[in-house]
TrEMBL record:
Organism: Monodelphis domestica
Gene3D superfamilies, per the entry: Tetratricopeptide repeat domain
UniProt similarity note: Belongs to the KIF-binding protein family.
Native organism taxonomy: Eukaryota, Metazoa, Chordata, Craniata, Vertebrata
Domain of life: Eukaryota
Gene Ontology terms describing biological process: central nervous system projection neuron axonogenesis; in utero embryonic development; microtubule cytoskeleton organization; mitochondrion transport along microtubule; neuron projection maintenance
Gene Ontology MF annotations: kinesin binding; protein sequestering activity
GO cellular component: cytoskeleton; mitochondrion
Protein name: KIF-binding protein
Coiled coil ranges: 319-361
Keywords (A to Z) from UniProt: Coiled coil, Cytoplasm, Cytoskeleton
Pfam families xrefs: KBP_C
Ranges annotated as biased composition (Acidic residues): 55-64
Subcellular location per the Swiss-Prot or TrEMBL entry: Cytoplasm, Cytoskeleton
Location, primary (coarse class): cytoplasm
Amino acid sequence: MATPAAWAAACEKFHASLSLSQVESQKDPENDPYKSKYRARELLQEVKALLGPAADEDEDEEVGDSGGSGGPDAEEGPVVEHAGAGAEPSARAVRLAAVELQLGLNHIDTEELAAGEEHLQNCLRLVRRSRLEPAAVSLHLQAQNNLGILWSERDEIETAQTYLESAEALYNQYMKEIGNPPLDPNEHFLTEEEKLTEQERSRRFEKAYTHTLYYLAQVYQHLEMIEKAAQYCHTTLKRQLEYSGYHPVEWAINAATLSQYYINKQCFMESRHCLSAASVIFSQAEQIPSTEDTETEQDRQDLRQRKAEIARCWIKYCLNLLQNAQAALEDNIGELDLDKQSELKAQRKREEDEKENGRKKVVLFGTSDVCDAILAMEEKVMCAPPLDFREAREVFLVGQSYVCEAKEYFQVDGYITDHIEIVQDHSSLFKVLAFFEEDYERRCKMHKRRVDMLEPLTVDLNPQYYLLINRQLQFELAHTYYEMMDLKVAIANRLEELDSHTIKKINSLAQSAIKFYELFLDSLRDPNKVFPEQLGEDVLRPALVAKFHIARLYGKLITSDGRKELENMQTSLEYYMFLVLYCEKFPEAARAVETELELSKEMAGLLPTKMERLRAKLTPFT
């Protein structure tokens, strides 16, 4: 650069271009959305002309034609060893690189990806040899970040991965070998008096690296490297809180989403931590004062929706925690195993001292203030699977409170699918709580609550548009009535003599179960009402289980009419035989219903003899 006046002009134009891109562009009219971006680009080109070519640009043996080559060359792999890296860059080279970086971002913002890629590649070439120097490292890292994003948008995920992993390796090597807060890319156009503090430089560099990890998490998700994606997501969220580089709502949703990964891995401590953090950080967004000018009705609606989505993640947490506990405690007929319960309680007592140590292994989010709020939130619900009704009820009540919160937004009018799923989760919470209840009458009332919330949903649901949901509800209702009938039979077996009210109740529950199983089976019929010869894999087990349960239900109906009893036995036999004959015709189906098939064969052998005896009793020899 020839004169101080030219340098001053370049600085002024550079900062004017940043203002146009970052501030003025927000005010551009809809019919000319890139007006400020194009003006910013013109200024950047003028800055580039004022700077002139870098002294060593033409001497760089790596310049070649890698710009727009379709991906990083061999030198752009993970940065481990760099021949020549660490060479002091010329002031003109890093200033030009800063301009090329801005030009690259500008073209990407205006959807000119090829031109954007070329400018970002120019930025890399200008500082490639000096990428480990404080003046150049942030330029190189941010160019790689943006090339990673660009290739992700082109759906070239593996190319994006290479750029982003290279940026990650560069950061790690710089921090290991140098460690000083590097210059921010925009500092190259500031006077010495205007330069940033080391603290601010460090914050911006760490923020850029956090972006690297954020985009890597998405890349690993696309590549189905789920565990690695979760690890990077967790680290990103932690860093965003540490360096205050986050939007509360977006952060909270990402943390709540991560909690679902931990649920699937049965890592309930980590899942609870993510959800507690999500709730605490989301509350920051709710507390931000708003005015009519800055917040629209749509903004408020979006906020309510996000809150409901976090509530749904809490529901899944509570439900999965309870179901995990049930799986650990049930015996081979699905009842509470008291020996297992005692064993697990003793084991928990032995591990009490280790519990705190385990807590410390979880990567905690946030600064001390935020951490305290998160830990306080965690105290509201346990993360160890409950071992008795009291503990199960505490988890249930937390889940139920979030059901109410989620339903406030996801109402049946407008969000019917979401609403039904929430109600189904509510039903499942009652179902698993009933497992812990020892009193059969109280357990039966819990199942009645399930019926009361599910049955109204089937009334107005159009089966043509909601076939799968209808089937789910029909099958769940049938099974709920079936469980209630079983409980009433168990209660009746303790009585010395059956009264008419008990008999009527058992029959009513059995008939309701049959009704919904039949509705489910009818939904499988074709338009001519013909039942399929071979069942699809997705409905094979439910359909055969429905047939088996109907067979058993007809056997449970109580009647003093011998002919009606014989008729019920005949119907029961027909359903058992359907299962046996179907599995003979399609042997692969037997694997889906091994227990039911074995019992059906047994009953198919016993019932004819029983029916003959009843016939003989009804028509005695004369």
